[in-house]
Specification:
Number of helices: 19
Shape: elongated
Strand content: 5-15%
Largest sheet: 7 strands, mixed
Helix content: 40-55%
Length: about 600
């Protein structure tokens, strides 16, 4: 029979374990007594007059807030009625919401003061009760030590002792909380990293990083990534978020949308105690939600990564499309500039010193683009204009029709001195190199040689390709071809830009300065002079404080230098601009001089 009176987890323990046990017991007693007395204070405080007065004061403040809101709402509605504004439920609700926002701040300040007083009372009581509890715990430990010492002297311990191998188990071994870094919205990998093998950790990282997304996940992510800030609050369900929490970036916008689709529960506690499990406390119930939390959090991080990838792809595609559109626009501008310089300027002035084309062809695979260019030519021409529609007649019949129109054009020129622009629909059919069209081609070649010189006319038409057209009929002395699909070279675009800018810099009458019209079609201009009252050929004086005008001069500095008077300039001076922070400080300096009207002069080295 085992007669040991000592109940421990292990009766065969050495001195060190006894020491640890005593420290643990002492800590337990002190902590328990220190916590018990304050807990008793908190329980008693719930029934105290202080708590009742606090709740009563809070209720009074809320009642005052409700009455004030109603009173001010009625006043606002009354004012609107006096001025004759229509009143409905929507207007009343809007007034009430505005009043509540104003009064809520005052209410929160009053409640904050009450809370501060209440917390001060509770903290004071807890401090006193904790001190009492600590003293009581120390007294209990003293009595316990005396009792155990007397008891130990009167106890005989059997040479044979029983060893109890109680294995204490706890889900705390999951140790979710050993790592606390937050790498994302949930940081779920870091929370479970210590429980995974290296391979499992790699798999988890691949999963949350969006590696190998499914087709459904890609479609889902692409749908969210297509939203832009300009679309806000499209797709947002929560009216409060839509009204008050406008994001500053596309990524924040996408996070709001994803949080609507994947609802991640609040993070469960990292540990629980045995009594939590025994009594099925709320902490134990929350702790059991870890699997659901891990699944949702990991899914959220995975979709967030996939959305980021799709957003980057979307940005790249948008950039590419914008670049293509910009190149196309620049190429069109280049073609129009060439048409204006090589054809329209001489055609409109009937310049007899210049060879005006007999025919002009706009080549493009896009019929609409070609048509728009022809319309632009017609709109820019200062001449008579005739349109010949294609009625699917035989080529000979159409050729006779064109001859008749040309003879009329010649008569009109003799009357009013204006040339004629003839737009022939599907003129390329007459230029076809088919075997049955040889005679028409022969007559057409003879006609094209004298359309401009004899009939004072130019034929314009469009075509998508020259492969099936007679190459001899399309020789440059007969037909001038402009391919608007061809990308204009950078040198040509730069030349056009320089010529355009120079055309907007005109000499000021009765002055040694020039006026630069830096915004086309608007009265935005700046006057330019040589610096130091025209005595310094190395300095350009910009007579403006407008930062946009100064930027325009800086950006087109090399082009302005093509004007002979300004060929030696290497810096610009101007009075202090209205927004000097937009200029590069490394190139800007204050000269220390002022203008005659007292404005500080700055110099900018381009």
């Amino acid at each position: 029979m085992k007669t040991s009176r000592i109940t421990t987890f292990n009766n065969n323990i050495d001195v060190n374990r006894n020491k640890k046990r005593r420290i643990l017991e002492a800590s337990t007693v002190l902590v328990g007594s220190t916590a018990l007395i304050p807990a008793s204070f908190l329980i008693a405080d719930n029934f105290s007059n202080n708590k009742k007065n606090y709740l009563k004061s809070v209720k009074n403040e809320k009642d005052i807030f409700t009455k004030t809101v109603q009173k001010n709402t009625d006043v606002g509605v009354g004012l609107l009625k006096k001025i004759g504004k229509p009143i409905d439920d929507t207007v009343i609700k809007a007034i009430r919401d505005q009043v509540e926002i104003t009064e809520k701040t005052k209410l929160e300040e009053k409640l904050a003061l009450l809370n501060k007083l209440r917390k001060s009372h509770v903290n004071k009581g807890l401090t006193i009760s904790a001190g009492v509890g600590l003293s009581l715990g120390a007294a209990i430990l003293g009595i316990k030590n005396v009792y155990e010492k007397q008891k130990k002297q009167s106890v005989e311990v059997n040479s044979t002792t029983q060893t109890y191998n109680n294995k204490i188990t706890s889900n705390n071994s999951l140790s979710f909380g050993n790592t606390k870094k937050q790498i994302s919205f949930t940081g779920i990998i870091d929370k479970i990293a210590n429980e995974l093998t290296p391979q499992q950790l790699k798999n988890w990282q691949d999963y949350v990083n969006g590696v190998f997304p499914t087709l459904e996940e890609t479609k889902w992510a692409r749908k969210i990534a297509d939203f832009r800030l300009k679309d806000w609050p499209k797709g947002i369900i929560n009216s409060y978020i839509a009204k008050y929490l406008k994001p500053s970036t596309d990524r924040e916008y996408h996070t709001y949308l994803l949080k609507q689709d994947i609802i991640v529960p609040s993070e469960p506690p990292m540990y629980y105690r045995n009594y939590d499990k025994w009594f099925n406390t709320q902490r134990w119930q929350d702790f059991q939600k870890w699997p659901e939390y891990i699944d949702k959090a990991a899914q959220f991080e995975r979709m967030e990564s996939i959305i980021n990838q799709e957003r980057i792809k979307s940005y790249a595609l948008e950039k590419k499309l914008l670049e293509q559109a910009a190149k196309k626009e620049l190429s069109e501008a280049c073609i129009k500039y060439q048409i204006n310089e090589e054809f329209l300027s001489a055609f409109n002035k009937d310049n007899k010193k210049v060879k005006i084309p007999d025919a002009l062809m706009i080549q493009s695979k896009n019929r609409e683009d070609a048509t728009e260019t022809l319309k632009w030519i017609v709109g820019k021409s200062n001449s008579n204009y005739i349109y010949i529609e294609d009625k699917n007649e035989a080529n000979y019949t159409r050729l006779d029709q064109i001859r008749t129109v040309l003879e009329e054009a010649e008569e009109n020129y003799n009357k009013n001195g204006k040339r004629t622009l003839v737009w022939v629909e599907n003129f390329n059919k007459l230029l076809s190199k088919d075997s049955g069209n040889e005679e028409v081609i022969g007559d057409l070649k003879d006609m094209l040689d004298k359309i401009s010189k004899q009939y004072k006319t130019t034929i314009i038409f469009s075509c998508n390709s020259t492969e099936n057209l007679d190459p001899i009929a399309l020789q440059p002395h007969r037909v001038k071809i402009y391919n608007i699909d061809k990308e204009a070279p950078l040198e040509e675009l730069q030349k056009i830009q320089n010529n355009y800018i120079l055309s907007n810099i005109q000499k000021i009458k009765d002055s040694d300065g020039y006026r630069f019209k830096y915004v086309p079609f608007e009265q935005n201009f700046v006057d330019l002079y040589l610096g130091d009252f025209s005595y310094s050929s190395n300095i350009l004086w910009v007579d403006s404080q407008n930062i946009d005008a100064i930027h325009a001069v800086i950006n087109n500095f090399d082009t302005i230098k093509k004007i002979p008077k300004f060929k030696n300039i290497n810096s610009i001076k101007f009075p202090r601009p209205d927004n000097i922070k937009e200029l590069d400080n490394n190139k800007l300096r204050c000269t220390g001089n002022i203008t005659m009207d007292g404005k500080v002069i700055y110099e900018y080295f381009v």
